[in-house]
Amino acid sequence: MSCGRNKKLKKYYGKVEKIESNNFQETSTKEISGLEDFKNRRLYSNKILGQLSIQNFFSKINHTVFKLHDSMLDIRMNMERFILEALENLKSKESVIVFGAGPCNDIPLELLTENFSQVILVDIDIISTQKAIERLDISLRSKVKIIQMDISGLDELFAKIKRLSSINASVNEIELLLNTYEYKSIELLPEINTKYDLSISSCVATQLVTPYITHILRDNYINDNIYKIITSIARKAAYNHCYLVRKHTKDAGFSIITTDVFEWGYFANNPISLANALPSLPITMNFQEFINIYLNKYRDYMLVGSTILYDINTFFNNVVARGWYWEIENSTLTYRLYMVMGALLKPKPR
Length: 350
Ligand SMILES: C[S@@+](CC[C@H](N)C(=O)[O-])C[C@H]1O[C@@H](n2cnc3c(N)ncnc32)[C@H](O)[C@@H]1O
What we know:
The protein is α/β, with parallel strands linked by helices.
């Protein structure tokens, strides 16, 4: 596998309503199970040692990615395009809310502050968000309000898992806890009791469950069975997140949801199993085709939580969708990229 294709892939961002083709080799997927891929992904998410609080865990990650802001201009432009399309059609521009704002590497903050009277940024880690605001001209900063909040709705579960693992509970106890956990649906969050003209969920759907739970449990506890249960909780969390985004959007407003969907690459010269599984992408594909054909076929290889793409239809009508690649690592040993899908959405009337 050569790094030569990396530059080529970078060019594929932001094509209107299309996922552009690439030159991925079509290979047999028969011998590769979805769990194989999940194991590989755990390898990466377990890089952070210790057992941190959810705030510290994401602060640590965000601290590292904060410096990527300048190199992520391409990615921000994809979001910018959706926002401009929403702005063209919005009558009221009172307020916008961003879920998972973090370091705002994906978010054109200036554009938001210039066009809305109030900008609400929600994240579990607010250190990076505060730093992101400092990039703004001082005259625009007062329009921004930051809310620190765990939007997964799973804080109780996280606390219980943390407690059990800290007392060296058995794998069975952890499995029982995960199995019996009844996922509560999220109501209007107390600090966010408003509806917004524009609501944005920016690559947070895949982050709500798996990264933090695997960080706490690590390989001491995670076996294939436990990972399957975590995956199922993550699917529900993604659904609930979609509901949450809808719930905070005015009927006449718009929403934008972006999510990473597939991870591709190689590590220490071994292809990540997904790289073996991913086929050549068709030249053109609209959002519905992408879901009906592509996602259904390669469902096992989707990033946990990216199933939010299936949930969108329940709450929204799709206006326009685009896919792009986000290269996250490019060294001699490791090459990784995410394929990201984003959509501008019109809330369905309730
Ligand atoms: C992949 S990053 C998104 C990047 C961000 N949109 C940007 O523009 O740089 C995921 C974000 O979700 C946040 N996050 C993860 N779990 C969360 C939770 N349970 N509640 C609130 N925010 C969460 C992380 O802190 C992080 O900022």
